[in-house]
Amino acid sequence: METILYAYQMSPGSDDLLWFAETAEECHLAAIAQRAEMLAENGGTQLGAMAVYRFVFRDLKPIELVWVLNEERSIVDIAAVDRRLIAVIAE
Questions:
Q1: I need a labelling partner for 52 at 20 to 30 A (CA). Which of 15, 31, 32, 71 fits?
Q2: Where along the chain do its domains lie?
């Protein structure tokens, strides 16, 4: 069984920290809201673009779940079988 989730880059231009949502719309709206907050905090200084992805995850094996829960491994590294860029958010 596979699960589809959506994620955006919380730090423009970096995949180090992603925020996940169940739907593309929810993800897109959250990214726009965060971007507005970041622009307000930076005094309107231009930000880099933020990528929005569609992920497909496979089911985890019990040991893989243990690794994720113990923060030894990333669920993205273990279970993401597909990642596609679906949008770019910028001014």
A1: 71
A2: 2-89
